[in-house]
Design goal:
mainly alpha; globular; Arc Repressor Mutant, subunit A
Length: 121
């Protein structure tokens, strides 16, 4: 039988922030990403995975982004080729930074829910 107290007290249990994001990115796996994407209503395609791995690599190389705008600009430079962010928002309708980071198991940068980012809907 499952004992919630053992889970809570387990040293191996992943530590999460109040929004449910991993504090230690080492606990992430593709299986966890797929589960997270399902909860977000996203079926991961090859393009989604490219963005997820880009986000993880960017975090590993540069640490946490100073703001969501910085990270969004990096995504746009890498994946949009000057055509705008629309493609990113079609893949991640809740925001490429917010949903992408959540699926990638990364902490969210400051101002990740800035309404001035717009939407594709």
């Amino acid at each position: 039988m499952f004992d919630i107290n053992q889970f809570i007290m387990s040293e191996n249990a992943p530590q999460l922030d109040p929004e449910g994001h991993f504090l230690d990115i080492a606990h992430w796996s593709e299986t966890i990403a797929e589960q997270s994407a399902r909860r977000e209503g996203i079926e991961l395609t090859e393009r989604h995975w490219e963005i997820v791995y880009f986000l993880r690599e960017h975090y590993t190389r540069h640490g946490a982004a100073s703001s969501a705008r910085v990270l969004l600009k990096a995504l746009e430079d890498q994946f949009c080729g000057g055509t705008g962010k629309r493609r990113l928002y079609k893949l991640f309708p809740g925001g490429p930074v917010t949903q992408g980071s959540k699926i990638a198991g990364l902490p969210l940068p400051p101002h990740h829910s800035d309404p001035s980012f717009g939407s594709v809907t």
